Amino acid sequence: MPKWLSDAVFYEIYPQSFNDTNGDGIGDIQGIIEKLGYVKDLGCNAIWLNPVYDSPFMDAGYDVRNYKKVAPRYGTNDDLVRLFEEAHKIGIKILLDLVPGHTSETNPWFLESKKAAKNEYTNRYIFTNSVWEAPPEYRLMCGICERDGNYLVNYFSSQPALNYGFYKVTHPDWQLPYDHPDAMATAEAMKDIMRFWLDKGADGFRVDMADSLVKNDEEKIATARIWRDVREMLDEEYPQAALVAEWCHPERAINNAGFHMDFYLDHYGNGYSRLFRYVKDGENRAFFHKNGKGDITAFLDEYMPNLRDTHKNGYICFMTNNHDMPRMTNYADKETIKLAFATLFTLPGVPFLYYGDEIGMRYQKDLVSKEGGFSRTGSRTPMQWNSSKNLGFSDADECYLPVDNAPDAPTVENQSTDPNSIYKTVTDMIALRHQHKELGNDGKIEVIYGEKNAYPFIFKRGKYIIAVNPSSKDETVDFGFEVKATLYSFGKTKLQNKKLTTCASSFVIFEV
Ligand code: NOJ
Q1: 266: nearest Cα among 218, 294, 299
Q2: How far, in Å, CA of 307 to CA of 315, rounded?
Q3: Which atom of ligand 1 is nearest to the CA of 62?
Q4: Which of 57, 104, 242, 394 has its CA at a distance of 20 to 30 angstroms from the CA of residue 417?
Q5: Nearest alpha carbon, ligand 1 atom 3
Q6: Whole-angstrom Cα distance, residue 4 to residue 440?
Q7: pLDDT digits over 323-381, tens only?
Q8: Would 16 be classed as within a structural domain?
Q9: What residue spans of 285-440 are helical by DSSP H?
């Protein structure tokens, strides 16, 4: 286990929209280098960088044309190496985004694979044996190329699935078993790409759709085997390199597949969504909502057993948001967001802060889809630095996406000096997390009060007790602890005769 993970706090950067230094309206690597000090000041000591590889950008770079080349619009490979070096100088690690499940349809491997004549890459993708063969249970693109066959896609139509074979082979004429040498060669090709960037100074990878490799592998047994092998390579050759899975199944990702971390993703109805974004029968029923209609047990019943089963082997990662989900400003007010983020930064696991969430950037509604963003586009708009042109993102007349044009658009400049800002809460909480090990990534958690359809939520981490009440009603519960000091609070709480009253919209950390 890379040691640095025990104190890691990540900042996710969507490179298109972070900082443009060459005036083309698109963020670049030099722009990230120039803002490393900003990331450090937030308290973050690691960055997850969304894909920066050469790509036609049909899916914002998750359609890789060349895994070993930085997209010219972001800079060069040397620029990326410089980013690693400059980040390391100030104690920041950089995870690249690895996209192992599919490539762009313009990737040279695919251009070869599409050819009628057999070649080294014929089996790098999954083709049926004839264009007339298109079993409906598979997502196939039909009649596209000279090769007589249809190919499987992994996500959008422009993203053909790489071939890691099938766990259950149902059509032996075109499906390779997962232990076929050609299927195993795909995994080796991915390892080669990983070594390429690790040798250049990358600190690991966030792995896109990590569970999607071997097909017909419902329990993900063969897929996990591939990642175990990758983990063995890391343990042997790059013991400080870290892997975080986009999987959302910690037992499989961490215990079976050997990932160091797994994201707790916002899947509708799961525990994470029940905390932050859940609407049922037209009513908001997220726990973090003023109307107080949430149910914390919907989160705890899922999270606590997962944590119990995996905490010895890795971390469950909470995120404020990411480039695939609407920003929290879309469904919660500022006070509620502060409560939600404060809580999130006191939970165990490795936290991830999505760029702009620290200043309360708004989800931009009604934007025309950009690079396969669709409804996600509104969460991918340029970072808002200050009051200058394009809010300091770029000098260009036209940007990758428009910046928030509201007169009160939050910026780093106006939020970092505001004592009531989300920025203040986030930076305070990250600082406390680094200062007090009990509040950090490894520490334990014990639920003190977490009742069905009730508020507040109270939990204990070492000698600290955290109580949060996002509802608009004061709530009083029995509280048998002797409080030595208040470490941090906002909103009001009252402690009297062994009863704790958490007033509407309040958060407190007691030392007991
Ligand atoms: C998950 C990524 O986060 C998302 O942005 C992308 O579109 C899909 N995987 C496909 O690669």
Answers
A1: 299
A2: 8
A3: 11
A4: 394
A5: 324
A6: 12
A7: 999 999 999 999 999 999 999 999 999 999 999 999 999 999 999 999 999 999 999 99
A8: yes
A9: 296-310, 334-344, 412-415, 422-435
Contact partners, residue 117, CB within 8 Å, separation at least 6: none
Atom of ligand 1 minimally distant from the CA of 59? 7
pTM beyond 0.70: the answer is: yes
Give the CATH number of the domain where residue 455 resides.
Answer: 2.60.40.1180
Mark whether 393 and 288 lie in a shared domain. Answer: yes
Quote the domain boundaries for residue 157.
Answer: 102-163
- Residue 400 shares a structural domain with residue 497: no
- Residue 446, strand partner residues: 460
pLDDT tens-place string over residues 409-466: 999 999 999 999 999 999 999 999 999 999 999 978 999 999 999 999 999 999 999 9
83 backbone dihedrals φ, ψ, rounded to 5°: -60, -45
Q: Are residues 124 and 215 in the same domain?
A: no
Task: For residue 456, say if its preceding peptide bond is cis, omega within 30 degrees of 0.
Answer: yes
Q: How many domains does the chain have?
A: 3
The amino acid at residue 106 is T
Domain membership of residue 371 (yes or no) is: yes
Count CA atoms within 13 Å of residue 129 on its CB side.
6
What is the token pair recorded at 149? 């066959």
Burial 262-291 (b: 16+ CB within 10 A, else e): bbbbbeeebbbbbbbbbeeeeebbbbbbbe
Q: For ligand 1, what atom is nearest to the CA of residue 154?
A: 10
Q: Is 512 exposed, middle or buried (0-12, 13-18, 19+ CB in 10 A)?
A: middle
Question: What residues contact residue 367 under an 8 Å CB cut-off, 6+ apart?
Answer: 373, 377, 378, 381, 401, 402
Which of 57, 209, 369 is the pocket-test mutation for ligand 1 (most atoms within 8 Å of CB)?
A: 209
Residues 95 and 213 in one domain: yes
Show the ligand 1 pocket: residues with CB < 6 angstroms.
Answer: 59, 62, 99, 155, 208-209, 246, 323-324
> What per-residue string of b and e applies to 18-53 under the rule 16 or more CB within 10 Å gives b?
bbbbbeebbbbbbbbbebbebbeebbbbbbbbbbbb
